[in-house]
Amino acid sequence: MTVRTLLRRFEDSDVTITVYGPPATKTVGERLATQGIDATWRKLPTGHQNAFAVIRRDGVFAEAVPLTAMETFLCDPMAGIGDSGTPDSDPGRQLLHSALANTLLSSLTPAQLLATSHEFEDRAYRVGAGTLRVSFQSLSIFRSQRARYESLTSDTDLDIHVYGQDDWEPPAIPGISFHPLTNDTLEQVWLLAFDADGDDQNKCALVAEETEDGAFRGVWTYNPRLVDEIMAAVVAVDE
Known about the structure:
With 239 residues, this protein is α/β, with parallel strands linked by helices. The protein has a single domain, classed as Endonuclease, Chain A, CATH 3.30.870.10. The protein is built from 7 helices and 11 strands.
């Protein structure tokens, strides 16, 4: 399995969003459009505070999420998220990621990918066991996440594997194995996969490839079979 063939599986996903709240926000509408998602707006007299978005997949209701959660992800995805200390999660962010699972997004930013990675790292922290495989493209990018991952490994029984181009010599950290890439299979890929110690209810994965303009095209999933497939593909790269 390659990233490109994986992403191709989701190219026909039909996701639409209806926002119930104040008049259409140009920025939110434009940023949804860049992700390949159509959005319509329905005015509510209650205003922005109680605004929400209804997400439909293939015409079927999938989830309703607070508009604030969607705005944060689209416009300021790292708001309230730290790179150090004990991992934590926000219910609105959890709900949004669940609603958009298996949706191919066309133009993800590094900040959006980092926020999604943190969401899945938080899940791994809560489970406390299992294998977490991560590729940030190059090992040097791990430096900004070191404190967070030291919390992950010191507070849990997670087995963590970090992959990337060999552009930095990482320190020895108990519970974390570093894998310098020997081929370019993952060099353009941002990836995180967690097997939840075999618990299908908590498995998750994020896979995105960098495009020519520097944005990322990607998808995240909670499908246990797909997560297992992604985990196996990453292991195969290192063999």
